[in-house]
Design brief:
Helix content: 40-55%
CATH topology: Rossmann fold
Shape: globular
Largest sheet: 5 strands, parallel
Structural class: alpha/beta
CATH superfamily: P-loop containing nucleotide triphosphate hydrolases
Bound molecules: thymidine-5'-diphosphate
Length: 214
C-alpha cells in the first residue's frame, strides 16, 4: 500500500478510468465501446456509474434526479454518499482484484456541477468527495467536451433536475471540467464530443493502451 497525492492510502492493482462531460456528450456510448475492446483483449472489466452504481445508489439517484427541490448542500451530500458507498462496495474491491473499472461520472462531476454550477466552491466539494472515497482518483479521466446547448439537445426523455438547471449553469460546469483538465493534464484526456464516435473510441483506446502497458 502506498500513499497517494492527497495523503490517503492507495491500494490499487487494477485500472480506474472515469468518463465525464455534459449531458448528451455520448459518455455511455464510449464507455461501452471501450469495455468491448478491453474484454476482447482479455481484461476483466467492471462498467459502472454515478449516481446509481449500487442498490443504495439507485435510491439516491432517484431522490437526487427525480425528487422534489433539494438544496445545493443536500444535493452535494447525496452525490457524495452515493460515491462513498459505490467506491467502498464496487470500485475498490474490483481494483483490488486487478480489474479495469470504467465509471460513467465520478468526483469531477461533483466539483463541476455542485462546486461550480451550484456555487458551493470547487475546493470544498472536492475535499468532500476525497473524504468520501478516501482519496481515490482515477488514473485517467476522459472528458467528452460539448457545448451544453448541443449536448442537451441530444438528450431524449423528460429532463431531470440537473438537466433543468439552465444554460448558464451548464456553461459553468463545462468551463469547470475544462479548467480541471487543463490543471491536471496527466490524468485527463479531453476530446471534442462532436467528432465521429469511432474516432473518439480510437483516441480513448490509444490512451488506455498506454496505461495497460505500464
Ligand atoms: P448521468 O447519469 O450522466 O445522466 P443521464 O443518465 O441522465 O445522462 O448523470 C445524472 C446527472 O447527475 C447529470 O446531470 C450530472 C449530475 N451529477 C452531478 O450533478 N453531480 C455528480 O457528482 C454526479 C455524479 C452527477
Amino acid at each position: 500500500m502506498s500513499v497517494g497525492a492527497h495523503g490517503y492510502p492507495d491500494a490499487v492493482a487494477g485500472l480506474f478510468v472515469s468518463f465525464e462531460g455534459g449531458d448528451g456528450a455520448g459518455k455511455s456510448t464510449q464507455l461501452r465501446l471501450l469495455a468491448d475492446w478491453l474484454v476482447a483483449r482479455g481484461e476483466r472489466v467492471v462498467v459502472t456509474l454515478e449516481p446509481g452504481g449500487t442498490p443504495l445508489g439507485t435510491l439516491l439517484r432517484t431522490a437526487v434526479l427525480h425528487g422534489d427541490h433539494i438544496g445545493a448542500r443536500a444535493e452535494a451530500l447525496l452525490y457524495a454518499a452515493d460515491r462513498a458507498h459505490h467506491v467502498d462496495v464496487v470500485v475498490r474491491p474490483a481494483l483490488a482484484r486487478g480489474d479495469v473499472v470504467l465509471t460513467d461520472r465520478y468526483l469531477d462531476s461533483s466539483v463541476a456541477y455542485q462546486g461550480v454550477g451550484r456555487g458551493l466552491g470547487a475546493r470544498d466539494v472536492e475535499q468532500l468527495s476525497l473524504w468520501a472515497t478516501e482519496g481515490l482518483l482515477p488514473a485517467l479521466t476522459v472528458l467528452l467536451d460539448i457545448d451544453p446547448v448541443a449536448g442537451l439537445a441530444r438528450v431524449t426523455g423528460e429532463p431531470d433536475r440537473l438537466e433543468r438547471a439552465g444554460d448558464d449553469f451548464h456553461r459553468r460546469t463545462r468551463e469547470a471540467f475544462l479548467a480541471r483538465a487543463a490543471a491536471e493534464p496527466g490524468r485527463w484526456l479531453v476530446l471534442d464530443a462532436t467528432v465521429p464516435p469511432e474516432e473518439l473510441a480510437a483516441a480513448i483506446r490509444a490512451r488506455v493502451l498506454g496505461l495497460l502497458e505500464r
